[in-house]
Amino acid sequence: MWHPCRKAHVNVGCVAVTGSQLAGQERLFASRKSERMAHGIAVIDQQRFEFPAWTDKLRPLIAVGALGGLVYVTLIVWFGGSAKTLNVGFAPNQPVPYSHALHVGKLGMDCRYCHTTVENAAMAAVPPTQTCMNCHSVLRTQVASLEPVRDAYATGEPVHWKKVHDLPDYVYFNHSAHVARGVSCVSCHGRVDQMEVVTQVEPLSMSWCLDCHRNPYPNLRPPELVTDLAWEPSEDPEALGRRLAEERHINPSTDCSTCHR
Ligand code: HEC
Ligand code: HEC
Ligand code: HEC
Ligand code: HEC
Ligand code: HEC
After folding, report:
1. I want to staple 178 with a disulfide (CB 3.0 to 4.6 A). Which of 41, 114, 183, 224 is the partner?
2. Is 141 contained in some domain?
3. pLDDT exceeds cutoff 50 at 28
4. Are residue 104 and residue 170 in the same domain, yes or no?
5. Among all ligands shown, which has an atom nearest to the Cα of 237?
6. Ligand 1, atom 17, residue with closest C-alpha
7. Structurally, how many domains does the chain consist of?
């Protein structure tokens, strides 16, 4: 790693650091040691004034080097940070083998029966145990697979569902802003109504968000149809989307502050 102390030309900062470290050390160690260190500082200070004038010309180069270092670190963080949200195919094992394919696909339940806040709040929220017990206090009351649900109900502890989709904390996302404007769950989560285990199907990367914010038209439908994942428009989706966007003034923002606030 690049460090200013290895480049004598900018050692002003290093002397300052060493000096303050020394102040701290002095309180901790015997005065003989701090004397030695004080001597070290003096030597560095001397060196600083001995550098010939031509080294001044190197300063812009060092500045470029430092900037390069910053860009490098940013890129590392960028790609490092991306890996976990770009998890297409992520499908953690859940504490209860709850199946959307059964409850939504076969039994025909609407998403909002369980994800009650999805139209009105930022979070879609996973349902409380009570929602399951509306049926499972009378249905399949003895099956082993539902034991964690019965236990949770008895103790008041929630079932510890594992999060599948997870944006970094510095990203602001809002379900209602999408759902209420006619972007279906299927655009971002795929055919959940056919999934035995919920699986992430989109990368949740910044470019994924921006691609749709720049061209939302193929993903727009009348808002009352957002939870009907099998719905297909009877006309060209792009043309329908453009008409809806026009009528409802839908115009997603690409400003940084929309998603980073
Ligand atoms: C529509 C939403 C959206 C907009 C607009 C947006 N971003 Fe992002 N940004 C994201 C998401 C989502 C991520 C997380 C991506 C990931 O984890 O791979 C992200 C990640 C980042 C990161 C990466 C940070 C890291 O540690 O990896 C930076 C930097 C960033 N955005 C800067 C910007 C800037 C600058 C703008 C404006 C030009 C902007 N973003 C506009 C959604 C957005
Ligand atoms: C009977 C209740 C119920 C219904 C109805 C339901 N879900 Fe869920 N959903 C859950 C539970 C419980 C979880 C958490 C366990 C899991 O991930 O399977 C969940 C998880 C999810 C997740 C993953 C959340 C995460 O951690 O990232 C998505 C996405 C999702 N549901 C979408 C939908 C969609 C779309 C519909 C309608 C088509 C729907 N759900 C209908 C109960 C329900
Ligand atoms: C509207 C009623 C209803 C609600 C609410 C409901 N379920 Fe179910 N669930 C059913 C029915 C009906 C079956 C049985 C289907 C069959 O096998 O014929 C079932 C089956 C199951 C099974 C499989 C049980 C077995 O036979 O092994 C599990 C696990 C399950 N549900 C979990 C949940 C969870 C977790 C919730 C809450 C998030 C929930 N259910 C909410 C109606 C419901
Ligand atoms: C525009 C894309 C988009 C749409 C449309 C969308 N979701 Fe999500 N959903 C996400 C993202 C992104 C996350 C992760 C949020 C986070 O980590 O902060 C998420 C997370 C979730 C979760 C986990 C709990 C939470 O709020 O973090 C559930 C449940 C869920 N979505 C259900 C739904 C349902 C049901 C619909 C349709 C009614 C829907 N989503 C529509 C992108 C979307
Ligand atoms: C499939 C299309 C689509 C995807 C994917 C998508 N968005 Fe959006 N987004 C929209 C539309 C459409 C709107 C509503 C614009 C309007 O109301 O004019 C919107 C609005 C928003 C808003 C509300 C802006 C406001 O002014 O209140 C936020 C925040 C947002 N999106 C963040 C995100 C982030 C973060 C992601 C990625 C994780 C994302 N979006 C992915 C289509 C999308």
Report:
1. 183
2. no
3. no
4. yes
5. 5
6. 82
7. 2
For residue 245, tell me if it sits in a domain: yes
Q: Which residues line ligand 2 (CB under 6 A)?
A: 94, 98, 100, 103-104, 109, 111, 113-115, 126-127, 161, 163-165, 185, 189, 192-193, 198, 227, 229
Taking residues 9-31, what's their average pLDDT?
Answer: 37
Q: How far is the CA of 216 from the centre of ligand 1 (A)?
A: 18
CA distances in angstroms from 5 to 43, 47, 64, 102, listed in the order given: 14, 13, 16, 63
Ligand 4 centroid–CA 185 distance in Å is: 7
Largest Cα–Cα distance of the chain, in whole Å?
88
Query: Same structural domain for residues 119 and 3?
Result: no
How far is the CA of 149 from the CAs of 129, 134, 154, 221, in angstroms?
Answer: 6, 12, 9, 36
Identify whether residues 13 and 109 lie together within a single domain. no
pLDDT in tens, 147-158: 999 999 999 999
Rounded distance from Cα 245 to ligand 2 centre (Å) = 28
**Domain that includes residue 11, residue range:** 1-51
Q: Is 60 among the domain residues? A: no
Q: What is the pLDDT of residues 177-231, one digit of tens each?
A: 999 999 999 999 999 999 999 999 999 999 999 999 999 999 999 999 999 999 9
Q: Distance between CA atoms of 230 and 194, rounded to whole angstroms? A: 10
pTM of the predicted model as reported, rounded to 2 decimal places: 0.82
